[in-house]
Amino acid sequence: MHFTSFLVAAASVLPVFGQLSGKVGPLTTHAAKSAKKTCNVLSYGAKADKTTDIGPPLLAAFAACKTGGTVVVPAGEFAIKTWVTFESGKGWALQIDGTISRTSGGSGNMLFVRNANDFELFSSNGKGVIQGNGFEDHKTGKRDGARLIRIEQSTNFSVHDIILVDAPMFHFVISKSSNGEAYNMAIRGGDMGGLDGVDVWGTNIWIHDVMVTNKDECVTVKSPSKNILIENIYCNWSGGSAIGSLGTDTAISSVIYRNIYTVHSNQMMMIKSNGGSGYVEDVVFENFIGHGNAYSLDIDQYWSSMKLIAGDGVKLSNMTFKNWKGGLANGAQRGPVKVACSDKTPCTDINITDLSMWTETGNKQTYSCRSGYGNGFCLKKGTGAGYAAITSTQVAAPTGYSAPVMKEDLKTAFGTAASIPIPTMPASFYPGTPPRSRLAGQ
Ligand SMILES: *[C@@H]1O[C@H](CO)[C@@H](O)[C@H](O)[C@H]1NC(C)=O
Ligand SMILES: *[C@@H]1O[C@H](CO)[C@@H](O)[C@H](O)[C@H]1NC(C)=O
Ligand SMILES: *[C@@H]1O[C@H](CO)[C@@H](O)[C@H](O)[C@H]1NC(C)=O
Ligand SMILES: *[C@@H]1O[C@H](CO)[C@@H](O)[C@H](O)[C@H]1NC(C)=O
């Protein structure tokens, strides 16, 4: 089914959307936009010669199509030397069917879409690629280069069927936006911290069917956020997904993470802060599968990689962790459940049900809880004051922990010193689950 008709159909059966508060995605189809006007970058000075800077042609094509139309980057290999800010477009689309490779330095955002309304960034053939060539920076120790795509203060938009490779810094950021959808994406970066896959904050945003390979955030929600639905995520040797880092006046509510497959990552899900204030509430983490990860369920309100922020701690409440399966790297070192809540602001209504995981090395694993209240494992019931960490040890595998393995699981990381090959889109992003929308070009 075409995704717009799917959305219209789904609007009448809202529960499918869980946490979303309304319609997401562009208001008009890219076909309607293209019928109105098409601005092909080749007509604005672009050349598929791997050398000519596509930056100025993109900007000129945008100027001609920004009030209604589609900017087209056709199949072919293009170079980008100067970054582009697409400011205040309305009723427009950016169709990328070729490869755009970074061939110069500079920080900031390579493709920066700001104040857009009714916008769609997509590939019609599933072969649209942004190649960041981050290794050129990383091999010399440079760590502050460009982000590949940023969507900011935009509404009624989607980003889909695009492949992002080897960002100098983050791959994809959605900030201060609403009514957005991002799906059918493969993101593959270097094997090092600071190369986030997807960072999102805003209202009413659906992210689904995304694969991330890197060594930092997989799909991470930041503050402020409300009504965020994240589904069918394949963290293929990454940092893992997270909520955070959380600081002063955190405001996050109504978030669902569902069908999250994580392999060889730092964690399956982490909520991270150190001091700070505000809240994270009404969150569900369901259907998680892990293999070979360091941490699994990890709430850390003393996160040592973050400097201490003033405040008694971010209040975490009403969080449900349901149906977690699989293995973990070393259960004696880092057990499947680590809840370390703020002593001054204990967590409440943390509900861990149906979590069955077992260590892949050794024959024991630990569960650890500090200042956490709710249900499951070492959590204390009810409410009350902060308490010191309680640790319990399990010496026999729990029943029903085994979980399927995806055939695309990465066997070795891509490092940071050599060019990273363009991945192909996997057919599925979670075991036994087809993508919510058909993959482009298939
Ligand atoms: C975004 O779309 C919704 C309908 O889904 C509409 O109510 C809203 O006005 C749109 N936003 C803007 C800025 O036009
Ligand atoms: C807890 O969060 C869930 C999921 O967002 C929500 O459906 C439920 O109403 C919340 N419970 C309370 C008591 O707020
Ligand atoms: C925890 O979750 C289980 C299963 O979803 C539910 O039956 C139970 O009522 C929940 N408990 C609390 C305290 O929310
Ligand atoms: C995940 O790893 C597998 C195995 O190397 C690879 O085929 C697949 O393309 C990877 N996904 C990404 C997005 O890099």
UniProtKB/TrEMBL annotation:
Keywords: Cell wall biogenesis/degradation, Disulfide bond, Glycoprotein, Glycosidase, Hydrolase, Secreted, Signal. The keyword Cell division does not apply. Residues 1-18 form the signal peptide. It comes from the Eukaryota. It is found in: Secreted. Coiled coil: none annotated. One of its GO terms (molecular function) is polygalacturonase activity. The keyword tRNA processing does not apply. Gene3D superfamilies: Single-stranded right-handed beta-helix, Pectin lyase-like (2.160.20.10). Its main location: secreted. Pfam families: Glyco_hydro_28. GO terms for biological process: carbohydrate metabolic process; cell wall organization. GO terms for cellular component: extracellular region. InterPro entries: Glyco_hydro_28 (IPR000743), Pectin_lyas_fold (IPR012334), Pectin_lyase_fold/virulence (IPR011050). Belongs to the glycosyl hydrolase 28 family. This is Glycoside hydrolase family 28 protein. It comes from Cucurbitaria berberidis CBS 394.84.
